[in-house]
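Amino acid chain:
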Amino acid sequence: MRKIFKLSIVNKILVIQALIILFVVAFFFLLGSELSVKSAFYGGLAALIPNLYFARKINKHKGQEAKKIVRSFYAGESGKLFITVIIFALIFQDPKIDVLAVLTAYISALTVFWFALLIRKY
């Protein structure tokens, strides 16, 4: 019998976020600017890496008492914000960066959370 592999909601969001980042990077690739492609990739990483950290942090305490879950949620969110700041600080150290491409990829990746309730149904 075949076992159907189901992703959790958190993993679905991360996969869709990665696909959106790939789409934006491909869009900038089609525009033909290597700088924009690199910048869009960096912007996507600035969104994805902190969310991977957060997902790992909250899944670590799955099924435990509510107090531990809430504590891990706040710790995960704080860590996520800190990692985001560090990544953006590193990105903007590069003098040759396309800010529009960075922010386009970053914001596009974050739009996944706007549609998270729709994803939950599937």
